[in-house]
Amino acid sequence: MDRSSLLSSLSSLSSSTSHTNFKPQFNLSSQPLSFNYSSSSAFIPQFLYKSNNSLPKNSTATVSPRPSLRSSAFALEEALVKTNDSSSKIYAREMLPKIDKSGRFCSPRAARELALSMIYAACLEGSDPVRLLEKRMNARRELGYDFDKEKLLEYNHMSFGGPPVTVESIEEANELMQKNEMESAIEAEVLAAPLKLVYSKLILRFARKLLVAVMDKWDSHVLAINKVIPENWKNEPSGRILELSILHLAISEIAVLGTRHQIVINEAVDLAKRFCDGAAPRIINGCLRTFVKDLEQTRLAETSHIRNDSFF
């Protein structure tokens, strides 16, 4: 299934969502985006996963042991940027707690992934991502609904796509397909579940904080994004909604929330590896580094200007 087929398969949030004046415009010269998608009660990002037209990616859903809860996931995330050794970074990332004592996601990655899904769905609908999140949080459970929390341990936030896989036999191809389908089924069940069953209160608050930051600076960040993205992305904004949503999320976290840019860039690149195609991770990495460089130069110039005014 190619990228356009994956995107066209996406089910948006309920059409009863109240719309606001939020008009996602990624290109200054473009019209507000308008899409016609079927409606359902939940946004299922697994339809966005990277794929190819031949065989499925060679990855499996792994069952992780219950992590230690003694350390804060946010504190461990901060520690990642202080490590120069790449193998130590990988080890430290694997040690990030995945669920808390209540059996819910507690990692910052989960919050960013949730926020991204809300931004993406809001762009498709022309609605407000903050209200979209609140609607999902307050949605009533269907009578008799039962969610298996063991699925949270099997869910893999670090499942990335890869190059086409070559196999020796049809049996091997079928095995890979079955593993991929199993992972997709787990992701679908987790991401369609009521948010309060899946995410801790801390993560839901963080996701909402991210979305508020995105909304507050949307217009100004459209200008910033248009300065750093390649021309072909500007010419096809409707085909790059996901990539541009990642940029909005990352830029808002850096500029508004003040999260260290090393952390945000790493997370944005991982989200791009997980949900986007082709060179998107590399391009997003370059765009964000250019944005950070420009931001630092602007802040330095403002500081210098203030000092000069104070001197005189």
Short structural description:
The protein is mostly helical and 312 residues long. The chain has helices at residues 3-8, 73-80, 86-94, 108-125, 129-138, 150-154, 170-192, 195-198, 201-216, 218-228, 231-235, 241-257, 261-275, 280-311. GO terms for molecular function: RNA binding.
CA-atom Rg in angstroms:
20 Å
**Major sheet:** none
Class by helix and strand content?
mainly alpha
Q: Give the CA-CA distance, first to last residue.
A: 65 Å
Number of strands: 0
Instruction: Report low-confidence residues grouped into runs of 5 or more.
Output: 1-71
The average pLDDT score comes to 76
Order of helices and strands: HHHHHHHHHHHHHH
Q: Helicity range of the residues?
A: 55-70%
Shape, principal axes of CA atoms: globular
| Beta-strand share of residues | under 5%
Please describe what this structure looks like.
By secondary structure, the chain is mainly alpha-helical. Helix content is 57%, strand content 0%. It has 14 helices and no strands. The chain has helices at residues 3-8, 73-80, 86-94, 108-125, 129-138, 150-154, 170-192, 195-198, 201-216, 218-228, 231-235, 241-257, 261-275, 280-311. Helix 2 (73-80) runs antiparallel to helix 3, helix 4 (108-125) crosses helix 12 (241-257) and helix 10 crosses helix 12. The chain is globular, with a radius of gyration of 20 Å.
Tags for this model:
312 residues; mainly alpha; transcription; transcription antitermination; RNA-binding
Annotate the secondary structure layout:
Elements: H1 3-8, H2 73-80, H3 86-94, H4 108-125, H5 129-138, H6 150-154, H7 170-192, H8 195-198, H9 201-216, H10 218-228, H11 231-235, H12 241-257, H13 261-275, H14 280-311
